[in-house]
Amino acid sequence: FDKLDNLFTSVEVNKWTEASKEYKKRVKNLDKTIYKRELERFIVEFSWKSAQIEGNTYDLLETETLLTQNIEAKGHSKEEAIMLINHKKAFDTTLENKKSYLKLNFSDVTQLHGALAKGLSSSDIRKQEVRIAGTSYIPPVSSIDLESYLRETIKLINKTSFPPQKAFIASFMIAYIQPFTDGNKRTSRTLSNAILLAHDYFPLSYRNVDVNEYKKAIIVFYETNNLYHLKKIFSGQLDFALINYFK
């Protein structure tokens, strides 16, 4: 926790600050109907990619049909549809309670995870050991420790002043601690976006991220605590958002 400070250079801070100004300008100038349509498109693309990272085999068009028309695609499991629908419902909830994510509390995180995990896995703090494919890193085991580490993460995010750094920390620390049986990375990504939106920054869809590169970046962090690759992805998604959303 003591190393998670000053993660952004002055150049990066300026880049995010200018992007926030652009985001606010675009949202202000967009027709409400177009803004709603753009937000819906973003949610579809984020839900699809976040689920794909977890092994979901729905393609983007199938995801759009599911989330906008509630029609499940043939040849896929019910669980895959639930995962995608949960993403949308969880994201909708963060939008309805946008200001809650200006300063986090413990229930904000556990309720968000509960929405993502509904019908798929337990929403309680994990009580058993988990192993992560591709790495020798073993997350904490004790449920008491896990709750303590999660609370420390929330405290760290709240005391961090620069909103994109808050969001960046959220994007990897819950995945690192693994406080829940499943859905930790989904919670990290969704919480990160909730923080960005609460502070009027572009949300990140991860739409053009290579899944294997993302997984490798996570594993590098698990193994070495090196954030270079994860921050490169995070920053790259801001570039992607500037080009593709709310225009």
Description:
With 247 residues, the chain is mainly alpha-helical. The protein has a domain at 10-29 and 103-244: Fido-like domain (Fic-like fold, Orthogonal Bundle). It is built from 10 helices and no strands. It has helices at residues 10-29, 32-53, 60-69, 78-96, 106-117, 143-159, 163-177, 184-198, 211-224, 228-244. Helix 6 packs antiparallel against helix 7 (163-177). The protein is globular and about 50 Å long. The relative contact order is 0.15. The mean pLDDT is 95.
Helical residues, percent: 55-70%
Order of helices and strands: HHHHHHHHHH
Overall SS class: mainly alpha
Instruction: Calculate the terminal CA-CA distance, rounded to whole Å.
Output: 38 Å
Question: Number of helical runs?
Answer: 10
Please tell me what the overall shape is: globular
What do we call the CATH homologous superfamily of the domain at 10-29 and 103-244?
Answer: Fido-like domain
CATH hierarchy: architecture of the domain at 10-29 and 103-244? Orthogonal Bundle
**Structural Rg:** 17 Å
Count the E strands: 0
Strand content: under 5%
Report the major sheet: none
> What is the subunit arrangement here?
single chain
Under the CATH scheme, which class of the domain at 10-29 and 103-244?
Mainly Alpha
Uncertain runs: none
Q: Which fold name corresponds to the CATH topology of the domain at 10-29 and 103-244?
A: Fic-like fold
Average the pLDDT over all residues and give the rounded result: 95
